[in-house]
Amino acid sequence: MSLVLHDLYLCCRQLDNDKATERKKEIEKFKRLIRSPEAIEQLDRNSESKHPKQLNWDAVFRFLQRYIQKETECLQAANPNVSATTQANRQKKMQEIGSIMKYFIRWANKRGPRLKCQDLLKHIMDTLQNRFSCAAYGTDYSSILLKDILSVRKYWCEISQQQWSDLMNLYFKMYLRPSKDTNRVLVARIIHTLVRGCCFQSEGLTSTLFEFFAKAMQNARQEQVFAVIEHIMSALNVFLNVCVMNCRIRVCKLGEEVFPTLLCVWTQKRPQDSLKEEIIEFFRLQLRAHHPKGAKTQEKGAFAADWLKWQHLLYSLYETIVSEVSHIGSRGKYSAGMRHVAVKDNLVDLAADICHQLFGQDTKVFVSSVTDVDSPQSHSHQGTPSKRRRVELGWEVVRDGLQKSQNDFDMIPWLQITTVLVAKYPSSVPPNELVAILTILHQILSQQRRGERIPYVLRCLSEIAVCQRLKSTLNTAQRLDLQKLWAKIWAITLRSISSQQTEVESFWLLEAILHGSLTVPDKDFWKIFSCSTCQPSSSAVKCLSRALAKCTLPEQMDGVAEHYLITVGDRPQTLREAIMRWLLGYRAEEDIEENVELPSVVRRDFPNQLVSQILVVLSLKDCRAGMDFFHSPLAESALAGESPAEVDKGNTFFTETEQLFLQTTFDETPNYSSTVVSVKKTGSVASRISVKHVLKNRLEEYLLALVECLRSAAMVPPECQVRCADLIIGVLRCYSDIGVTSEDDACTSALFQKAKSFIQDAGEYISTAKNKLNEELKLSSLKTMVTVCTKCLHSHTKHWAKRSSSALFLQLFPARFMNDLVQICKQLAAHSGKSHNACEAKDDIQDGFREMQGNGSGDFFDDNDKTLEVGDYSDSSDSLVGTGAKSILAEENLTKHDFLLLDTLRFLCCCTAAGQVHVLSFRSSDIRRKLLMLIEEKDHSISKSLHLHMYLILLKELSSEECVLPSDDFSILVNPLLDLCSTYRSDQEVCSVILTHILPLLTVQGIDSDEMTDVQGKLLKTIGAFWHLSKERKCNAQVRAALVRCMKALLEKDPHSKWTVLSIRDEEFPVSEIYTEFLRDTHHQVRMLAAMSVSRLFQEVQIQDQSVQLKALPVKLQQKAFENAYMKVQAGMRFQNSAEELQDEKCNRKATLLTVISLIMCCSPICEKQALFAICQSLKENKLDPTLVKKILETVSKCLTYRSLESFMVSHLDYLIHEWLRMADSSYNLPAFPYVLLNCSNLEEFYRSYYKILVPHLMVNGKLEEVKSIAACIKGNWKELLADCLPKIMAYILPCFAYQDKNGSDGDMAQQRENASKVFDMLKEDDCLGKQQIDLLSHNSLPEIVVELLNTLYDSPDQDAGYGIELVKFSGAMDPAPNPPYFPSPVIRATLEYISSCHKEKFKSLVAILSKNPDSIQKILLAISKKAVDTSSAYEKHRILMMYRLFVNLLLKEIKDGLGGVWAFVLRDVIYSLIHHINSWP
Number of helices and strands (H, E) in the chain? Predict the structure, then answer.
């Protein structure tokens, strides 16, 4: 021990001296010694070594605790009745004590957290829980907690769920029952931070938080400090956003409770903007929870705990928002200087949501009172009279808002609200309002007043154009009026393009009008793209693309030549050439000036290859066909010319949470279509595309002129050179795609060489700039160029769907270009390593994370006792504290050099991934290996933010779905994975990101090969460890959701679980089994995510060429998967929750159950019947809502092509009744059967409609008394019911007799024969039908008996054809079993022979008996054909065809005998039936 450390040790031992003067002297010495550099260095070293007998920071902390305890005891024992001076001295002493602790902690942790989190928390908790010490040091210790513990990521991740709970309970108590000295702002800030930590780092404290916020918001009216309300509101919003998926009903109930209070704060307290933002966010969240995706009624997915109260609250909120918008206008009128006119987006969005809910109602006016928002009971009409106001509702309010004032402050807010309302809910706009609103907007637009309104008007008009395109209910008069208005608006918009302020919005509007075919473009429109009115921009090019796709381009047009004042030879310039010149910024040689600005096409970024496509399309004979080809659905990317107005509204406006709510109520059904085999059409329309070679040559001339323009420029930024090269490659690629040129010809063309020279020039710039990275200008320029390169590469991979399509672009890059970029990465990584030396810190926690065996809980990463290391810790300023520790993934941790490194790394990864199968100027394998060396460097530390980002980029971007990553490189890539997961295992955000980034590795081609065994093991070990953590509740819902996605990817890669097996504690668990565990997860989102992909347990995805097929897995795997999934989802139904959580849990878990079963029905014909019976069983056992079940089954029946729900149920009713009656539970009787699914309103209707199905099953089970009860219920004779059902009863029992006679009794058939004998004996009894009547009925109903008998045919594919089962060769391996009972074809033939042998006339065959009455044969053939027509199942049609074959073969054997004169009919019927069957086959 060094001398200074020895002095410190002696000083620490004297800190708890009984003499106050000694303690004072020693504490001053302590302060001096603790700052000594030598002491700090030695304490740091001892803390890292973890030697138990050496003085370290933790030991010093324990000494300091004893000192504080001693001083506290002295203060507490002092006489309270003293003078003011003495009291002030004591207060000063308390402040000094608190400051000493704060001082020590910050000094110890200045170079990174050295003190143990658990020790710090225990000391703080003990201090704050003591009334005296809390009063003395509460503020200081709270500040320590906020700034020195909760703001440190390492500590943030080490706090356990119990500690979060204890801290919250402590501070909740401080907030709800504050003392006079409590700093309420500080307490509120800490609560905000604790709620964030609890929500993002742990689970299970939901009820505590609901209770607290319900109480806290009751006091918000009396709170005078806005900062307190703001922090509590922020905490509430954080909590609700996290828990709303799992607790929708409770969130809605809480919202309805606190809604009036927050309205009161908003309207009466004039809160500052930051608090108002939080209140608005709360209201928006409540509207999303109550009305997901704008649903208005409960039948459509909306929910409210008290609908009357909620409606009243919506009216109050509407009034408040209208008033707020009016105040914005009035403030603008009298404000001096410049003031922003527009309303903030969140308020506009809230206003649009409220208007959508209230405008469609019959109420046009409601009466509001001043006291409406003053109390939660305001919806009651009791109380004292109050002043009342008349508030108008409906689209008239919108029209008035747009018309009543010409002031921008009054008009623009309503323009914003109208725009969002129309865009978000286009179906809610009444057709008659379109004309009225469009007329007003046209008037505003035509006034052309100065101000800020015009861009807002144009945006609003764009959304209305989209809305009108979606309307199909407009009458002729409305369409004519709208057409006239659009024509006027079109003309005005064309003129507004010349204004830079409105250019972008004008092109958006023109594009929307073109897309909706609302007017026909005139010559003025085409002149825009053939003159200098405006320069090419992203919005202009999108508009042009839409015009070329929707309209016919004029070949010649007056005025074009005049605009350019040139002709081409002796002929005038065509419009196509003019547009080409406009796009490329072409200038004739004589027009080129010095220092002229570079063309826009190389200065700006444009959508994916859109300019290249347009240029090529302009050289084709049919422009529309060309645009259709390039924008066909074959491309994975969205339509390149899609404008903001055309983006999918569901993805733009609505959240994943709202989608989950609607899936839970089945108002948004699962994607059943994904379970059907889908094949991408590969047919190309390139064969009907032809090129105009004159225009093609002209385009090449213009491109060469563009190249010369850049060559002659004084200075061309490297990113402009890259853009020009990309444009040229895009043109060559388009010509290659339509078959005009080959890729080889493109590579040898002059244009390609010009593009290559540009990239070489850009490479020269990199070579010179790589040594000047400290210069801000060079750094910025390099970053811009790398970003442009990445965008260009992505535009090729996205538009052409395959990464191999980027080969032409990648062939431009020389090896030196790539090597220089790699060198830059190395330099920047080394620079970062030097600048982040302070980031190193060691872990002091040993928790057995890598324990693979034993009884204790363990995590499964082999981590050598590593955990989260925290970089660059420093005291956070007050302005930054209050929201918890900053994530290591936060961009604030990165410098400009770091961003350049990450962008460069991303580009290089994309290049190597896309260029693996092509011969390029650089070797992808060499570049990839150099990139992987970055993570093998000894200086590479995953505890640093930059290095973590680097590794995540390599994980995500380095692999390619199309190309095999070599096993050695793959192994290097995944080597750090376990250490990474071990380091950040407690950081839920990082864990989620890691799992998301390894997802591409699980889908990479070749991952399932034998060479990848080592890689597979590491990936599976990682996923297995996370799964074990989730089982021990150490992963939050976000991590578990990412884990579900990973397991889904593994199922798709290895559906048979050949290698996707997780080894946990020497036990092996196939992923297919583990996956179903998530069906009973504690979080609704995780359960539903697993449920939505349950089809992967029944089907495998096969990709061949460009086709995607879903192939059924083997029958045994499907049966096992169904049993597993159903067992787990039923286990999830047996939950134990508090009464408050019960309603949410019931609703959510029932949704999971129904989603799983409905998807299984759609994707697995093998398990379809079992799944349907599971729903019937669940309807009884789990008390499901029959209306909800019917809604689901209607969707399923439609997906399976049944005519109706009833026909779907009837097709399986025999199976359902058979299984229902087999249940051991006596409560499973016919009256308990869910006949409501058959659209039967009562039991009598059920019996009357389906007794022919019910009675045979009852008789086979020997339940004659129930047959009598059916007859009594429908007021019929039970013997008549038996007689009516006799054919089916005989078909069920005769095969048992026949098969025994032919083969002797064995096994199950002997049991069935015994049961059949009992049934037949029962029927023969005189008090039943009697033998004589049975014989008579059997003779008269022989055709019906034969049909019913044939209907029991089923040759299982696993039967041996050698035992006389000739039809088994026609059976498919996936043919599902029919409704029971069913018998193989030998049994059916034996039964037919048995029937003929029992006939009184003893004919040789059944056919001979039937031939006595020729109608019998016709009846049988007709009945079989009708069955084939009525069924919707392809498998059932195939089985019926085998029935038909079996019977027709019997007829053909005896056709020479004439078949009673109907032989010709039989032949004709067979021929026609087969032709019909072949033609109807899909």
Answer: 65, 9
